[in-house]
Design a protein that fits this description.
The protein is α/β, with parallel strands linked by helices. It has four domains: 3-207, no CATH class; 223-304 and 539-610, Rossmann fold; 362-474, no CATH class; 618-782, P-loop containing nucleotide triphosphate hydrolases (Rossmann fold). The protein is globular and about 110 Å long. The protein binds adenosine-5'-triphosphate. Adenosine-5'-triphosphate is lined by residues 194, 197-198, 207, 209, 212-214, 217, 233, 235-241, 578, 581, 614-615, 721, 723, 751. Residues 212-617 form the UvrD-like helicase ATP-binding domain.
Length: 784
């Protein structure tokens, strides 16, 4: 649609008007913020001047307390006011650069007046006219912009639906107060603008997409009906982007009750955390909490075990195929992450109510105060109807009683006597004072010596038995370690709780036990172990978190998802995933949607599918979509680039020569972010070693905390969720990528490319390439 010159002039005048007003507001706020800051500094400096401190009588003390409290309240009110003003100021400064990105003209049914709605990252009110010059993109009326093209349109408000007609939909790009371009749009939100946005080069940080949110993405962002929202989306379809906008939306909609720290994002790796960390601040919101599942496991189990991380497991799966026991481990990984095993663990807990419970003896000074046999007898002496957890609480009381009796029996023992000798003067003084308090007005007597000794003996025993009591109070007498082990040592018990044993179960048992005995917990055992522990001892919960977002949810086992549900009982969940990128060897929760959909039940679960891919050029999407089942449904965004290149070389020397030349040429052409993607960390280290001597690049490992722009070498599994201008696949040979489990890894690697994809191959290229239609890629063979 063409835009008249008069429109352009009018719009530019309006931009000046609005930025002028924002500028005035900024000046006022700057003065305000300065004044409040001075107040805060002043109050802090003179805090005690205005407080009357008098500790003489009880009344004086109360008065002092009141006066301090009053002063502290004044200070905290000023501090709060400072924070609010400073945050408004930074919001308006951002708004001044680019006050809005969209406009809709809307006439409500039954009304004459046409409303002009301008959308930006925050609202701006003309205070004199009481008129919104800019509407926040999250306001109810703003959804018109994302959901409709000109014509009949409606939006939801808290008091019901408002319908009418949209007469105009216009997009702007405004920088520093000038309209750079503007156009009126039809069906989708500005293909033109989206084209421009997507053709830019990638960044070391993810960007916000507010100006170009697509209709189906808007459904994810504004969905707040269901307890569980599952998003299955193709690579590059904007799942993560939509999820982050959703956080911003929820923070706006529920601003009275919801704070950023009540939302948690579970990321695939720490580097990804840093990649997405700027999106919310860019939108003027504080960041939500960010973590990884591994971080959580480490926190809970790291003191007791060396907990394997998913990346090490992945390295093993990809590199150890020739090692003995490989197939057994693979079978173990699949089983231990399955819904079957989850059920087996639950049934195991029920079985333990009847038999098989194991306890750690309450030991002290080399002997047992209570043996594990006595504990087991006690446990099974309770009425069978008493639930396991309640029995443990009863056990705890009983054990504390036993410890008390033991303590009493030891008071006159020689070892206590020796310990008393070792006490220091302060302890003696404490005992003496205590005795005086007991004896009160009585004169000192001959007995005092015995009484004081008695007090000292109690002190010694209490101190020595304290750790034991703490353990008992925390139910640590339940021997979770041996109970988990028992599943692999006692076949009768295992058969009693598991539906079917997986293939090569005996060997799985042997492997598991060997590892446990070394104090290690394999990644596939960590969540089941913790789950069993919490089933027995009670679940740790976090009730303040109201929203959990799980990115790359296809990589979570049913166990892990169940765990998150238990951990955050008052929370809603958004699970974002792509079946085609499930790269871990375990049975993915999303390989079949049942386990994840069953988490909160069908009535509380909604499912949204995104099929349009925005990241990569049409050529890259067309090439990669054939690699995965259902790939034909992926719709590329209409943006063209070069066809992917497959370059086959004879050996590693030729490989390195070609890649070095390629990187140099790409840099000259202006590609800022280039990734050399390898299959594993081991291969990445090799590639880095060979290439870094000839060209400047960085190596990314699982410990790399943040994502830097430039040329990076990294394993495919660490490239999850991120993107690059150009991707060079280090060695896409058939030797590297031919097994079924490598298919999705390869697909994930290829789909990281925004503009350019070059796949090198030492020898025969991967079958995942050669089975693609020949017209989707170009080949250069340098094999001679
Ligand atoms: N509506 C949109 N407007 C502009 N850019 C978009 C939009 N949706 C997605 N993008 C861009 O597409 C790219 C991919 O988005 P994102 O990383 O959110 O996808 P994803 O589905 O999480 O991908 P993957 O599963 O492959 O990691 C990003 O560069 C993002 O900015």
């Amino acid at each position: 649609m063409s835009i008249q010159e008069t429109d352009w002039i009018e719009e530019q005048q309006r931009v000046h008007l609005v930025t002028g007003q924002i500028g005035e507001r900024i000046e006022r706020l700057e003065a305000e913020v300065g004044a409040v800051k001075t107040d805060v500094v002043d109050i802090r400096r003179h805090f005690w001047d205005d407080v009357t401190v008098n500790l003489g009588t009880h009344d004086d003390l109360a008065e002092t307390y009141r006066s301090m409290k009053q002063q502290a309240e004044v200070l905290s009110e000023r501090e709060r006011s400072y924070r609010n003003t400073a945050s408004a100021l930074s919001k308006f400064r951002r708004l001044k650069q680019s006050p809005y990105f969209g406009r809709i003209d809307f006439r409500e049914n039954g009304q004459q007046k046409v409303e002009h709605i301008y959308l930006g990252i925050a609202s701006f009110l003309d205070e004199e006219q009481n008129d919104y010059l800019v509407y926040d993109w999250r306001a109810p009326i703003s959804s018109l912009y994302y959901d409709y093209s000109p014509g009949d349109a409606a939006f939801e408000t808290p008091s019901g639906e408002v319908s009418g007609e949209m007469l105009l939909k216009r997009q702007f790009a405004i920088r520093d107060g000038d309209i750079r371009f503007m156009f009126d749009t039809g069906v989708t939100i500005g293909d033109e603008l989206l084209q421009q946005v997507l053709s830019r080069s990638s960044d070391s940080q993810m960007r916000s997409i507010v100006a170009t949110i697509q209709k189906e993405q808007n459904q994810i962002i504004r969905n707040d009906r269901s307890r569980m929202l599952i998003v299955q989306g193709a690579a590059g379809s904007g799942k993560t982007s939509a999820a982050l906008q959703r956080v911003a939306y929820l923070l706006y909609k529920y601003r009275e009750t919801l704070q950023a720290d009540q939302m948690v994002l579970f990321s695939p790796n720490p580097m990804f955390n840093s990649y997405v960390a700027t999106v919310l601040p860019e939108l003027g919101e504080e960041n939500m909490q960010q973590t990884t599942f591994q971080e959580y496991l480490e926190r809970r189990l790291g003191r007791r075990f060396e907990v394997e991380d998913p990346f090490n497991q992945m390295e093993y799966v990809l590199t150890a195929a020739d090692e003995p026991g490989y197939q057994v481990r693979l079978s173990g990984i699949r089983y231990k992450s399955s819904a079957d095993y989850l059920l087996a663990i639950r049934t195991y807990k029920d079985l333990l109510e009847r038999e098989g419970m194991l306890f750690t003896p309450v030991r002290f000074r080399g002997g047992s105060i209570v043996t594990s046999e006595q504990m087991r007898d006690k446990f099974y002496s309770f009425d069978a109807s008493v639930r396991l957890r309640n029995r443990l609480v009863l056990m705890k009381d009983w054990l504390l009683e036993e410890i008390r009796a033991y303590e009493k029996s030891q008071r006159r023992e020689a070892w206590v006597e020796e310990e008393i000798e070792l006490l220091d003067a302060e302890d003696y003084l404490r005992a003496h004072n205590k005795l005086r308090r007991i004896q009160k007005d009585k004169d000192e007597t001959f007995d005092d010596f015995h009484l004081e000794r008695d007090i000292l003996a109690r002190m010694v025993l209490q101190e020595k038995l304290k750790p034991l009591r703490t353990r008992v109070k925390n139910l640590r007498f339940v021997d979770v370690y041996s109970l988990y082990r028992q599943l692999f040592t006692d076949e009768r018990i295992f058969n009693g709780v598991a539906e079917d044993a997986p293939q090569r179960w005996h060997e799985i048992c042997r492997q598991t036990l060997e590892r446990l005995d070394r104090g290690e917990l394999a990644y596939e055992d960590a969540t089941p172990y913790l789950y069993l522990q919490e089933l027995l001892l009670g679940f740790q919960t976090n009730t303040s978190v109201r929203h959990v977002i799980v990115d790359e949810a296809q990589d979570y086992s049913p166990f892990q998802l169940e765990f998150l549900k238990r951990l955050f009982p008052r929370s809603r969940m958004t699970a974002l995933g792509d079946l085609n990128q499930s790269i871990y060897a375990h049975a993915s929760a999303l390989s079949d949607y049942d386990p994840i959909a069953a988490l909160y039940g069908p009535d509380h679960t909604e499912f949204i599918r995104l099929t349009r891919s925005y990241r990569s050029t049409r050529e890259i999407v067309k090439f990669s979509q054939g690699m995965v089942p259902g790939g034909e449904e992926i719709v590329p965004f209409n943006r063209s680039g070069e066809q992917p290149m497959v370059i086959a070389v004879a050996d590693h020397k030729a490989l390195h020569d070609k890649i070095v030349a390629d990187i140099t040429a790409l840099r000259t052409e202006g590609y800022d972010s280039i990734a050399v993607i390898c299959q594993t960390a081991a291969e990445s280290a090799e590639a880095y070693e060979a290439l870094s001597q000839r060209v400047r690049l960085g190596l990314v490992t699982k410990h790399t905390p943040s994502f830097e722009k430039g040329t990076l070498v990294l394993p495919a599994y660490l490239a999850k969720g991120v993107e690059f201008d150009a991707v060079i696949i280090y060695n896409g040979s058939n030797e590297r990528y031919s097994r079924e489990q490598e298919r999705k890894l390869f697909y994930t690697a290829c789909t990281r490319a925004m503009h350019l994809l070059h796949i090198y191959s030492v020898g025969e290229p991967s079958v995942f390439i050669t089975t693609q239609p020949a017209d989707t890629y170009k080949v250069e063979s340098l094999m001679v």
